[in-house]
Amino acid sequence: MDSPTDPADGATRPHGWHALDDDPRWYERAVFYELVPRGFYDANGDGVGDIRGIVEKLDYLAWLGVDCLWLLPFYPSPLRDGGYDVADYWSVAPDCGTVEDVRLLVTEAHRRGIRIIADLVINHTSDQHPWFVESRSSRVNPKADWYVWGDDDQRWSDIRVIFCDAEPSNWTFDPVRQQYYWHRFFHHQPDLNYENPEVRDAILAVVRFWLDVGLDGFRLDAAAYLYQRDGSSGENLPETHQFLQQMRKEIDRDYPNRMLLAEVNQWPADVVDYFGDGDECHMCFHFPLMPRMFMAVRREQRFPITEILAQTPPIPDGCQWGIFLRNHDELTLEMVTDEERDYMYAEYARDPRMRRNLGIRRRLAPLVDNDRGVAELLHALLLSLPGSPVLYYGDELLMGDNIYLGDRDGVRTPMQWTPDRNGGFSRADFAQLALPPLMDPVYGYQAVNVEAGTRDPSSFLHWLQRMLAVRRQHPIFATGGVEVLPADNPSVLAYVRTGTGETGERAVLCVSNLSRFAQAAELSLARWEGAVPVELIGRAQFPAVGPDAYVVTLGPHGFYWLELEVVG
Amino acid sequence: MAPEPAELARLAASYLERQVWFQSAIDATPAAPIELVSARTLRPSRPGLARLILGRGEQRFQVLVGWRPPPELSKVLRGRESALLGPVGDGQSSALAYDAVADDDLLLELLVHVTGGKESAARVRRVSSLVSHASLVYDERLFMKCYRVLESGARPEVEVVLRLDKVGFNALLAPVAHWRDDGFDLALVREFLPSALEGRLLALTSLRDLLAHAAGGEDGRARERDAPRDDGATVPDADAECASAGGDLASEMRRLGATTARLHLALATAFGDRPASASSFAEAHSALDEAGGNVAPELAARLGTIDPAAAGRTIRLHGDYHLRRVMRSEVGWLVAGFSDDPLYAAVDADGSLPGRRGSPVEDLADMCFSIRQIAREALSQRPGAEAADATRLASAWERRNQAAFLEGYVTTHGVRRLLPREPSATELLLAAFEIARELRYEATSAEA
Is A254 a known active-site residue? Predict the structure, then answer.
């Protein structure tokens, strides 16, 4: 076992503040870790990462301090869209393992205090799915109405085409059935027909099946597109919400402590609808925050972030945002304005190969020119802004990407475990690997890998592990309120996380320098006059807050987390 | 029972004479006695609060007077002892009167009174007190300007804010309550966005980023344009360098241009617009005359060819429009500087702007000049060794952001009707007014 041995705790969870027992709101305080099962660790040496491989690496993940794994699709699939084209909802792709392996993973993860959620693709299936094979075979068969069929391709012509680079229309003609079928994504991913109660029942049965296996919840893929209506954008329709509420109701009734995380790539004011009145999804991703964090660092000023915080409405009790720096998809630009999208392109994607649809395929480290200071600052923001952070596998090593791989595979290269063959990812022959590991001089596995990261106490990996531990000690980061503080320097972002602890009001001041130059700022902390700020990582005391403006000085891309303790 | 107004007025009069703002407000007329004009008791019980209007000649002043028993007051006035007026009788044991602006409790009470009970707060702080008004921030969300030096009739700055708000212009700090009594504007309460920052600071941040880039690796990054290129291409032009710098401000300046257009349209709606005439451009003409043949003889000649009938409209101007008068906030750009603005008060000396009318191009020229000034300011902070390259980039930055500002302005729906019919005439006027600003600036600098 080549998992890190650095902390003596090993397999034992170093923290116990949210034991895996009866905690229906665990997701509010969790740090998520998104991983691609095929790219994480290959336990059986066939060149493809698998569920057993994840089991073998659970000690590493427990050491790192993550609370929940989010697994990308592991279902049987022709893999024309990274597994988001499901060909069978009831089993695991043979190269990934078996349903039994998933059971084992859940058991072993739970033993270490880690939960497991998985992608559930409910909007569409693969065109290889038996449901679609049957549906397209004729206009009269038991599954004839399980998909959305039409005699022409004109209906709902106002509905935008999301993968506009690849698909000319949301309709594709099927030569067998001699009709058009509807698809919001690729043409090989026909949309399920949610008007049909049999489809709704079938999907709910899939949900129950995997919850029975033991999953702690689902990340609902493309949740906004389930229904279509004439004269609408085909997004966020009331019927879609009704179905999600029905799903939530069944889960609440039969499966305590499970959760739903919605992928709705929309503006926050629209996304909040997916929380319902606390009776729909437990979590939703906050998409626009992510590009804004990168933009703020590039512009060296805080408004891209504070603006989006100001536009983020409050959410119902028991709900939480999911926030992230990078994920398996592109740097999502759908939700920034045209002008800002141009800006992001100009800044981050000078090479057209890096562009795809409306996003940018890069991992975190190459996006920030491998600048450790920027990577630390961005993570400090991620861990202290409101929401549950979602880390992307490999970013804890500052892994790179491979822009020469097609589709979105560039950011799905194998996890780099050791400097050995295939980066320790697989014992298979190199030629057998589904995707090659990175071997370039900067990000290649010879230099960037878990073994090196754990052996080097000043590595980014150790830094992040410590930061996760600090965050865990302060639930205020997870559930506290947030208040942006005025600072007289645009390059300084200051906000206070506020909450009530056992000893009364608590507050943590987070102040960050978005500039690559040292900065000073005056903060208005009058409300905490008399408090003695204590830096959370080193526990050093700062000068007490007086009646006047509080002056902070920060090194390039520096940040502080200061607990405001009122003395006496 | 409240003390007698006359008694309070007597104490307040001698207090008034000790105030800097009183001295600077009185004119050169022979000394006249200070008299009580009107008084209103806002809170009779202890601590008590009364509002006095005192007169000296034609001028009027507001003093808020509080009273408390001496032991209590010594705590309240700690560090602000100069606010003490003197002993008064309120029918109970002895009490001391003082300037109520020194007393948090009474200021909180004042907010409730001024807003007719709509608003209350838990905390108050004073922004500045040596000026002709008291600037008070309540709970970091409301701002009250309580006037000490009063103006008869409608106070122009109050009028501008209220009218712009009424016509739906939302890029300003919205008025919440207006206190008018006995024919005087006594206080204005507005929302407060403490996180808003002067446009000047954003501009300097942008320039810092760009000029550090120019300094060649000062920030530890290789300059892309210096890297060997295998395609044999020449180095990118300065505008492209500005565009590719992380701190490029052009998109912000475009938004500022759009906000400015909305301001002008709102001013036109609120105060009316009229056809421009030759006299609308008198300042530009005289500036060019003053500059003589050296600066822009061709410009002067062409200026004379603008047909007044096609020269757009005149509106009530902002009149002092530059990067210190606009604030970037979480809700976009805000326009400040109608003299009565909390942000304005915080960044500059007090001053009452006349409600001047003119071509909107004047405000645009002000801002363009301000963009140039800030580029100069940033350049002046850099060591001489970098001067040549930095100057080249600062000029490009100036042109790029002026262009973005103007583009944001003219592409705003409906604003073209305020401008001269021919775009070339607008450009001409802009250039002429910019020269006028430059000359005015040089004259002011020379005086200083």
Answer: no
What whole-number distance in Å separates Cα of residue B437 and Cα of residue B370?
Answer: 9
Amino acid at residue number A444: G
Give the whole-angstrom CA distance, residue A307 versus residue B433: 35
Percentage of chain A surpassing pLDDT 70?
Answer: 89
Per-residue pLDDT of chain A (568 residues; tens, 9 = 90+): 444 444 334 444 444 334 576 789 999 999 999 999 999 999 999 999 999 999 999 999 999 999 999 999 999 999 998 899 999 999 999 999 999 999 999 999 999 999 999 999 999 999 999 999 999 999 999 999 999 999 999 999 888 888 887 899 999 999 999 999 999 999 999 999 999 999 999 999 999 999 999 999 999 998 999 999 988 888 889 999 999 999 999 999 999 999 999 998 888 888 999 999 999 999 999 988 888 898 899 889 999 899 889 989 999 999 999 999 988 766 566 656 666 666 666 665 555 555 554 566 788 999 888 999 999 999 999 999 999 999 999 999 999 999 888 667 889 999 999 999 999 999 999 999 989 999 999 999 999 999 999 999 999 999 999 999 999 999 999 999 999 999 999 999 999 999 876 667 889 999 999 999 999 999 988 889 899 999 999 999 999 999 889 999 999 999 999 999 765 5
- Structure tokens given for B330: 């979480």
Q: What are phi and psi of A230, to 5 degrees?
A: -60, 140
Say whether A221 is catalytic: yes
Q: Which candidate, B192, B175, B18, B179, places its Cα nearest to that of B112?
A: B179
Of the partner residues A369, A486, A491, the one whose CB lies closest to the CB of residue B205: A491
Nearest CA in chain A to B202: A490
User: How many Å separate Cα B10 from the centre of its chain?
Assistant: 35
Find chain B residues with C-beta within 8 A of A484's C-beta. 195, 330
Residues of A in contact with B331 (CB under 8 A): 307, 310
CB-based contact A300 B254, cutoff 8 Å: no
d(CA A411, CA A361): 7
Judge: B197–A490 Cβ closer than 8 Å, yes or no: yes
Arithmetic mean of pLDDT over chain A: 90
Cβ A78 vs Cβ A95: under 8 Å: no
Question: Nearest to residue B418, comparing CAs of B358, B348, B377?
Answer: B358
CB contact under 8 A, B246 and A299: yes
Q: For A443-487, what is each residue's pLDDT tens digit?
A: 999 999 999 999 999 999 999 999 999 999 999 999 999 999 999
Q: How many CA atoms lie within 13 A of A332 on its CB side?
A: 22
Within 8 A of A520 by CB-CB distance, chain B residues are none
Q: ipTM of this model?
A: 0.79
| Nearest chain A alpha carbon to B249 | A299
Residues of B in contact with A307 (CB under 8 A): 330-331
Question: If you write DSSP's letter for every residue of B123-171 in order, what string do you get?
Answer: -EEEEE-SSSEEEEEETTTEEEEEESEE-BS--HHHHHHHHHHHTT--S
- Return the beta strands (E) in B210-337 as ranges: 274-275, 313-316, 326-329, 332-335
Of the CA atoms within 13 Å of residue B214, those in its CB half-sphere come to 31
- Please give the residue of chain A at the shortest CA–CA distance from B195: A486
**Helix, strand counts (H, E) of chain A:** 16, 21
Nearest to A301 among B202, B212, B219 (CB): B202
| Contact: B251, A340; criterion CB under 8 Å | yes
The three-class DSSP label of residue A275 is: helix
Which chain B residues are closer than 8 Å to A486 by Cβ?
A: 140, 194-196
Nearest to B328 among A303, A309, A369 (CB): A303
Least CA distance to B255: which residue of chain A? A339
Q: What integer pLDDT is reported at residue B311 of this predicted model?
A: 86
CA distance A152 to A161: 17
Give the three-state DSSP class for A285.
strand
